[in-house]
TrEMBL record:
<protein>
    <submittedName>
        <fullName>Phage major capsid protein</fullName>
    </submittedName>
</protein>
<feature type="domain" description="Phage capsid-like C-terminal">
    <location>
        <begin position="116"/>
        <end position="393"/>
    </location>
</feature>
<feature type="region of interest" description="Disordered">
    <location>
        <begin position="29"/>
        <end position="48"/>
    </location>
</feature>
<dbReference type="InterPro" id="IPR024455">
    <property type="entry name" value="Phage_capsid"/>
</dbReference>
<dbReference type="Pfam" id="PF05065">
    <property type="entry name" value="Phage_capsid"/>
</dbReference>
<dbReference type="InterPro" id="IPR054612">
    <property type="entry name" value="Phage_capsid-like_C"/>
</dbReference>
Length: 409
C-alpha cells in the first residue's frame, strides 16, 4: 500500500503552491492573468486527484484492517506491514515502541505537535467514533466539517445568517414579483462571519497491565469506553458549552429561546405546547430531556384526558413527544432546572473537526500497582449557525433552539 504520509505531503505542497499564486495576485491588487487562471485550474485538478487518492488509500487500509479480502493473516507476507486491529496497534505501541510500522503514526502525531503519542488511523478511530455516534445527540444531526488533511486544526470562517434587527428568517433576502421589463428588486442579504477553531479535549482511563496484554480485550474495551465518553463530552459542550476554549452550546447561545414554565418544578402539557409553538418548524426537531422528568411525562395528559407520551417501554424508552423524537441524556439538568426539557433543530449547529484521535499511555504513576493510564485526545469546535432567533414574515419569533425555563416572577 502507498504511504499516506507522502501523499499528504504532496497535497500540502500543492495547496501551498495554489496559495502562493493567490497571494501574488492579491499583493498586486489584480485578478489572475489568463495564464495564471489556466495554471490554477490545473493545480485544482491535481489537488482533487490527490484528495481522491488519499481517500481511496484510507479506504483500502480500512478494508485491510476490518476483515476484507486484503486483511492481514499471520502467514501473509504481502501485508506484513499492517496491524490486525487497534488492539495489536496499541500493544505494539506499548511493548515495542521502536517497531517501524509505528513511524507513520508517530510522524502524524508530531505534525500536530503531539509528543510521545501516536495518531490513531481512520480505520481504527472510525470504530470508536461509530460507537459514539450511536449514543450522541448533536453530532449525528449537526453540520460536520471534517478536518483538512494538511492543516486539520486551522481556523475556518464561514458565513452565518444575521438574524439581527431589520432582518428576516432568510438573512434579509426580500422576494418580489415584477412585471416584464420592470426593475429587479434589490436584496440586502445580511451575513456575519462564524469562525471555528478546533480546541483540544482529552479523556483518560486506568486499565490493568493484564488487560493490556490481551489485544482483543483492548480493542473492545477501550473502543467502547472512549466512544461513550467522547459522545457524552461532545454533547455537553455542543449543548451547554460557554465558548471559552471549548464549543459554544446551542441552548445557551443568543439564538436560543427560553419558554417560562407554568409551575415551578413541574412540566405541564401547556409548557410542551408553548415550546413547540416557539420552535422553528420545517427541519428535524428533537427533544432532549433529563431522565428525572420521566414520571411526569409518562403520566401527563392533554385537556381531553389522553396520555401524550406513550413510548414502547417493552422495546426502549424513547419514542416521540408530540410527533418529534425524544432523547434522554445525562447532560440535561434535573427536573425543575432550566433546560430539563429542550427542543432543537441541530441542523443549525456547525461542528468543525480537527486533528486526532491520538493515543498516549504511561505506567509511571501506577507502576507498582501494575496499572497503566491511557489517554485519548482530539480537537473539535462547534457553534450555532445563526446568531439570534428567526423572525417570520408576520413578525412572529421562533428559534431552532428552545429550552424550558423557570416560572416568570
Amino acid at each position: 500500500m502507498k504511504n499516506l504520509i507522502e501523499l499528504r505531503k504532496k497535497l500540502e505542497a500543492k495547496k501551498n503552491e495554489m496559495r502562493s499564486l493567490i497571494l501574488q495576485a492579491q499583493g498586486e491588487k489584480r485578478g489572475f492573468t489568463e495564464e495564471e487562471e489556466t495554471n490554477y485550474s490545473a493545480m485544482e485538478a491535481e489537488q482533487r486527484s490527490l484528495e481522491d487518492e488519499i481517500k481511496m488509500e484510507e479506504r483500502a487500509q480500512a478494508l485491510a484492517m476490518s476483515g476484507g479480502s486484503t486483511h492481514r493473516t499471520p502467514d501473509d507476507p504481502e501485508h506484513e506491514g499492517e496491524f490486525r486491529d487497534f488492539g495489536e496497534l496499541f500493544m505494539t505501541y506499548r511493548t515495542n515502541p521502536s517497531d517501524p510500522r509505528l513511524q507513520e503514526y508517530r510522524d502524524l502525531a508530531m505534525s500536530s505537535n503531539v509528543t510521545g503519542g501516536i495518531f490513531v488511523p481512520p480505520q481504527y478511530s472510525q470504530q470508536m467514533l461509530e460507537i459514539s455516534r450511536e449514543q450522541a445527540i448533536v453530532r449525528p444531526r449537526a453540520m460536520v466539517i471534517p478536518a483538512d488533511s494538511t492543516m486539520p486544526d486551522a481556523n475556518i470562517t464561514m458565513p452565518v445568517l444575521d438574524q439581527g434587527s431589520g432582518s428576516n428568517m432568510y438573512g434579509g433576502v426580500e422576494v418580489e414579483w415584477i412585471g416584464e421589463g420592470a426593475e429587479k428588486p434589490k436584496t440586502d442579504v445580511k451575513f456575519k462571519e462564524l469562525t471555528l477553531t478546533p480546541h483540544e479535549v482529552a479523556g483518560h482511563i486506568v486499565v490493568t497491565d493484564k488487560l493490556l496484554r490481551n489485544a482483543p480485550a483492548i480493542n473492545g474495551v477501550i473502543n467502547r469506553l472512549f466512544g461513550a465518553a467522547i459522545a457524552a463530552a461532545e454533547d455537553n459542550a455542543f449543548l451547554y458549552g460557554d465558548g471559552n476554549a471549548k464549543p459554544k452550546g446551542a441552548l445557551v447561545s443568543d439564538a436560543a429561546k427560553v419558554v417560562a414554565r407554568k409551575t415551578a418544578n413541574v412540566i405541564t402539557y401547556v409548557d410542551i405546547v408553548a415550546m413547540l409553538s416557539k420552535a422553528k418548524l420545517g427541519g428535524s426537531l428533537v427533544w432532549t430531556a433529563s431522565q428525572s422528568v420521566l414520571p411526569q411525562l409518562l403520566t401527563m395528559k392533554d385537556e381531553a384526558g389522553n396520555l401524550i407520551y406513550q413510548p414502547n417501554i417493552a422495546a426502549q424508552i424513547g419514542g416521540a413527544l408530540l410527533g418529534y423524537p425524544i432523547k434522554f441524556t445525562e447532560n440535561s439538568p434535573t427536573l425543575g432546572t432550566a433546560g430539563d426539557l429542550a427542543l432543537l433543530d441541530l441542523g443549525y449547529y456547525v461542528i468543525k473537526d480537527g486533528a486526532g484521535i491520538f493515543i498516549q499511555s504511561s505506567d509511571a504513576p501506577l507502576f507498582t500497582q501494575n496499572k497503566t493510564i491511557v489517554k485519548a485526545f482530539w480537537n473539535v469546535d462547534g457553534k450555532p449557525w445563526v446568531n439570534g432567533p428567526f423572525k417570520l414574515a408576520n413578525g412572529y419569533e421562533v428559534s431552532p433552539f428552545v429550552r424550558l425555563g423557570i416560572p416568570t416572577a
